[in-house]
Design goal:
The complex is a heterodimer of chains A (about 120) and B (about 120). With about 120 residues, chain A is an all-beta fold. Helix content of chain A is about 0%, strand content about 55%. In chain A, a hairpin with a 5-residue loop joins strand 7 and strand 8 (about 65-70). Chain B is built from no helices and eleven strands. Classes of the chains: A mainly beta (about 120), B mainly beta (about 120).
Chain lengths: ~120, ~120
């Protein structure tokens, strides 16, 4: 079955330290990969996406993500965390299903807490 | 560029009452999505429109939920009658296209409380 996993419900990082939010997937074919962020009491915002090419993708607010095809992972990273990065982060994977239509699967989300 | 607009932002109703949500997508976006998000969980797709046609409504509880996108622009989502378990945030999103690498842009959501 097609799936997306965010193995950590919560990640705690001290301000100024690097952060990583993990995402792994199991889907057929070559998927498109996305990260979204949700700040408290707000809708989701697009952060970045991987289509093809360079495995390191840069996005909004200083975030980047590394695509690893062999490990089927798309981990979100930032070199130096800010308290304002505290939010809920969702990984999403779009792939072409058996019926040739695109499907989008969402991860369950990871709560990122940055402590001053 | 204006974002995705939704109204109302908050709604409190009693069970068995009806409620409607409105969404205006980003201009030029052909694809519109309605999601239900339970607190602390990922969004669950309820229905997806491509222009004014339904692409996917497999997870829409059709006995009580309905949605339309007349003229391929604005959309409304209705619940009738509401149940306690419908308490959630209802998110509308839009994108340039339905497949491929198109990212979705989300509205602020409508927080529904059913008492």
């Amino acid at each position: 079955a097609q799936s997306v996993a965010q193995p950590e419900d919560q990640v705690n990082v001290a301000e100024g330290n690097p952060l990583t939010v993990k995402c792994t997937y199991s889907v057929s074919g070559n998927p498109y990969l996305f990260w979204y962020v949700q700040y408290p009491n707000r809708g989701l915002q697009f952060l970045l996406k991987y289509i093809t090419g360079d495995n390191l993708v840069k996005g909004s607010y200083g975030f980047e993500a590394e695509f690893n095809k062999s490990q089927t992972s798309f981990h979100l990273k930032k070199p130096s965390a800010l308290v304002s990065d505290s939010a809920l982060y969702f990984c999403a994977v779009r792939f072409r299903g058996m019926d040739s239509n695109y499907q989008l699967i969402w991860g369950a989300g990871t709560k990122l807490i940055i402590k001053p | 560029e204006a974002g995705v607009a939704q109204s109302p932002r908050y709604k409190i109703i009693e069970k068995r009452q009806s409620v409607a949500f409105w969404c205006n997508p980003i201009s030029g976006h052909a694809t519109l999505y309605w999601y239900q998000q339970i607190l602390g969980q990922g969004p669950k797709l309820l229905i997806q429109f491509q222009n004014n046609g339904v692409v996917d409504d497999s997870q829409l509880p059709k006995d009580r939920f309905s949605a339309e996108r007349l003229k391929g622009v604005d959309s409304t989502l209705k619940i009738q009658p509401a149940k306690l378990e419908d308490s959630a945030v209802y998110l509308c999103a839009s994108s340039l296209g339905a497949g491929g690498p198109y990212e979705q842009y989300f509205g602020p959501g409508t927080r529904l409380t059913v008492t």
